[in-house]
Amino acid sequence: LNLFIAGAHQAYEEAHDNAETRFFQERADICLQCLFRPTFPGTSRRWVPFAILGASIPGWLMMLMYVPSHPAIASVILFVAVVLSDSFLLQHGWHSRSRQGDLQVAPEEDADFRECTSAEAEDTDAPASTTPLSHPASTRSAKSLSASDQKYLWFCYRIECEVSGSAGEGGSSGSSLMGRKAVEKMRSSRISHDVLRLRRNTENMQYDMDLKLSHLREGMQGLGQDLSGRLDKLQEAVKGLVVNIERLGLGAQAESQQLPEGWESARAQ
Fold this sequence. Notes:
Elements: H1 2-36, H2 47-66, H3 71-89, H4 93-98, H5 107-123, H6 168-258, H7 261-268
Helix pairs in contact: 2-3
Keywords: Membrane, Transmembrane, Transmembrane helix
Transmembrane segments: 47-66, 72-90
Region (Disordered): 100-142
């Protein structure tokens, strides 16, 4: 039962970490897509997109009615109208705030910015400033900064600036602890990934070494077989030579026995 509980707890932690990671990745993907979409920072008139759509839809319908053989032209007109209207609707918050340079930052944004800067000051062992901070591009006041003025989408996430870690001293210590825990998890995952890659590289090198050794062994075996074959042929040739020499010796002996008795003395003289 304890083993089952431990396994279930570990699986739950892994699933929770994976879900949190996927959430942040999807949120960052949405933010990146939003940043890459075209926008007109100098305009904030909300009637412009409706005017563009109102002028383009009748033209699109007329192109479909009077030029039915070329629907691509009508599609291009509608596509351009949709992109233009979307670029007018999609306005990032910092563009509107940069035009209000004489106004102060919202209190909640000032607190978040001061908290992040204090966290950075703790990392560099410098005293954190507690005075109200002003951004380079000052924004509207908290009264005039409504939800509609935020312009749809902008994410800025840091693990040290969690909402749970902005409630007093205990919260700040908890946020730093969460940040350290996240850093340790990232470091351990990176180390495990490096160990796995090193293991794979070692296995590949060992496989290549075994393959080279097997090729070398096969080559040595072939060379040994070739040498043994050549030695066998040499032995057979030597045996044949010995047999021929023996035959020549026996023939000479037989010829000497067949000669007359005085032939040897005469040959010697």
